[in-house]
Amino acid sequence: MSITDITAPAAALTAHNFHSGATPIWCPGCGDYGVLSALEHALAKHGRPPHEVVMVSGIGCSSRLPAYTSCYGFHGVHGRALPFASGVKLARPDLEVIAVGGDGDGYSIGGNHFIHACRRNIDMLYLVMDNRVYGMTKGQPSPTTEADWDSDIAPGGLGLRPFNPISLALAAGANFVARGFAGRSEELANLIVEGIRWPGFAFIEVLSPCMAFRSEAFGWKESVHPTSLSIVDDRAAAQAATLADEGYSLGLLFKDHRPSLPRQTAPLASLAEVEAQFWVCCPARHQG
Ligand SMILES: Cc1ncc(C[n+]2csc(CCOP(=O)(O)OP(=O)(O)O)c2C)c(N)n1
Ligand code: SF4
After folding, report:
1. Cα(199)–Cα(122) distance, rounded to whole angstroms?
2. Banded model confidence at residue 23, pLDDT cuts 50, 70, 90
3. Does the bond joining 66 to the residue before it have cis omega, within 30 degrees of 0?
């Protein structure tokens, strides 16, 4: 398909248009079901057909998500969703690019890419399903796991201070920062639509409980404070609010107008011009 084949937004899309037909193999009660449902509803509301949307992930239970949608998808290697998504968006700015994954994938092995994606501000949505554990590899602590979280695999807790991804995203320069909860799918869908439509790098942290390894996360539905984040256009104030927050406030925290990449779609020079400018002279060639 060429860029010129892209159609106008299809009328009256429904969440069903975004089902792939594959049945998720997530555990019963996994928060990722709520995220998938919210994402499908958000895409329907946004109005671009599945063939204009690219869903990119790394590895983990949450990173299986692209397979469950009918959009174009790339299920890549652990921690590398954002570099791949950046490449797709730079090569095809006409497509809607959404990167998804877990806290292990995005903040541990992918932590470097997270910082630089915020900084580059390429126009895409990054949705992190944070269950504060590595679900797929059977319950190791992740960078957002509480220091004293006791488990068979880390008795007594790791003793390492978790970091605050929202604070990091703000400091690194993300254009849109919000937090949703898998158990409040409708609110999450609205945040996703807003994030997709906002220019630049939009980051949404989604609290998404892992029932297999953190069953106490059932309690998150009582812990969350709906629509309590609302700073919006002041990065310093948003940073102060997030540092004062215990991690369960939901809603849109921050939106900025920092110019996003890609700024232009046409190349600045032709391939021949680039070759002429950067031609490395080889003495052997001249002698021949
Ligand atoms: C290079 C590499 N290192 C480690 C792994 C093993 N691994 C697979 S998934 C995963 C963690 C997934 O955790 P998270 O991203 O939090 O997703 P969840 O399963 O909790 O949704 C790890 C460490 C891997 N696949 N590749
Ligand atoms: S192990 Fe946890 S994160 Fe993975 S599918 Fe099961 S509940 Fe979801």
Report:
1. 8
2. very high
3. no
Helices (H) and strands (E) in the chain, counts: 10, 7
Q: Is pLDDT larger for residue 239 or for residue 227?
A: 239
Tokens of 236: 């310093």
- State pTM to two decimals: 0.90
Alpha helices (H) in 226-280, listed in sequence order: 235-244, 271-278
**249, β-bridge pairs:** 225
Structure tokens at 206: 């989604």
Q: Going by CA atoms, what residue is nearest to atom 6 of ligand 2?
A: 27
Q: Scanning the structure block, which residue is given the tokens 């001249």?
A: 286
Residues with a CB atom less than 6 Å from ligand 1: 59-62, 78, 101-105, 129, 131, 133-137, 142, 210
Residues 6+ apart with CB under 8 A from 9: 47, 48, 49
